[in-house]
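ok new one. same drill as before - structure tokens go in, u give me an amino acid for every spot. 310 of them this time. try not to just spam alanines like last time pls lmao
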């Protein structure tokens, strides 16, 4: 039974809580088997095309390495290497690539671009980050929390910072997993109300709780884990100075971490900017699991690739 097979992975809001759990179970299994499964090539002969309109370290390398480990192949393309950069339509690009490859990953600006690509592709499309969502990241984050805490349901996760793509997918993820996600953003940087409504709908079926603050300490109180992300995302470079001013008081530092539980973890999707959204002491300290998160991108995405392309 594989209901995700042949489907797209554009938003975690489209994936049922049971499917999320199945992906995490498979990821955990693949992580344990790593090395032991040498010779097994479940995606032999399969190709993933990856289109990047924005830079990437983790997404690009973990998807490429993941495809190779599963016996397949991945090719990384930037818009300007494709005729897309010279005005060929997304629709024609999607139709053409679908004749060659078994899946398409895209990282781009507008979420509508990914939706448009998926509409015309006849192979599964994976969202490798848009301005609105980062579902692959949230999947790896759930895997990391489950691995470190032994469970997800009932955990309290605090998110402090910008109401951005990473938070939007975390809202879906926490809702699916039955967690309590407490969010603190500066006024004016709240998450998208449509995404919050969608996440609240999922939460009603799982017992998850989503709460929203403008005071970081209020969100972090008693949390099992504290998450932050950059204040200026890719594409917001010109807003950086204003954002640094607006986010004063939102740095995750040792003082803020002391409001969480004594064994609270620190999470960040990376790349991180020490001295802005997080202090060096916290991100390089003993409670930080940021490189486990980065590693888990690989395992979670291998589970996704097997499920969608297998
Ligand atoms: N977290 C994440 O998506 O990293 P990259 O931008 O390096 O892919
Ligand atoms: N919010 C960040 C995440 C990077 C992985 C961005 O979109 O740039």
């Amino acid at each position: 039974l594989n209901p995700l097979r042949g489907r797209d992975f554009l938003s975690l809001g489209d994936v049922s809580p049971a499917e999320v759990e199945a992906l995490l179970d498979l990821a955990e299994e693949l992580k344990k088997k790593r090395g032991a499964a040498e010779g097994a090539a479940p995606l032999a002969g399969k190709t993933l095309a990856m289109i990047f309109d924005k830079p990437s370290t983790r997404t690009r390398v973990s998807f490429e390495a993941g495809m190779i480990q599963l016996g397949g192949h991945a090719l990384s393309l930037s818009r300007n290497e494709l005729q897309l950069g010279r005005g060929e339509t997304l629709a024609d690009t999607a139709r053409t690539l679908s004749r060659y490859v078994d899946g398409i990953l895209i990282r781009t600006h507008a979420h509508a671009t990914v939706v448009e690509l998926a509409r015309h592709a006849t192979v599964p499309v994976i969202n490798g980050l848009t301005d609105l969502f980062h579902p692959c990241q949230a999947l790896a984050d759930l895997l990391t929390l489950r691995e470190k805490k032994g469970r997800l349901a009932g955990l309290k996760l605090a998110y402090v910072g910008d109401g951005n793509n990473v938070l939007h997918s975390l809202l879906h993820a926490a809702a699916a997993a039955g967690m309590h996600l407490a969010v603190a953003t500066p006024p004016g940087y709240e998450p998208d109300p449509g995404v919050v409504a969608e996440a609240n709908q999922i939460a009603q079926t799982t017992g998850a709780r989503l709460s929203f603050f403008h005071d970081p300490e209020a969100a972090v109180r008693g949390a099992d884990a504290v998450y932050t992300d950059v204040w200026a995302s890719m594409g917001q470079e010109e807003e950086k100075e204003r954002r640094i001013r607006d986010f004063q008081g939102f740095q995750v530092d040792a003082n803020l971490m002391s409001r969480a539980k004594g064994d609270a973890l620190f999470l960040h999707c990376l790349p991180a900017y020490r001295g802005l959204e997080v202090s060096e002491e916290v991100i390089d300290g003993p409670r930080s699991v940021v490189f486990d998160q980065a590693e888990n991108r690989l395992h979670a995405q291998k589970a996704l690739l097997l499920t969608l392309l297998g």
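The chain has twelve helices and nine strands. and btw Residues 56-59, 129, 137, 269-270 surround phosphoric acid mono(formamide)ester (ligand 1) (CB under 6 Å).
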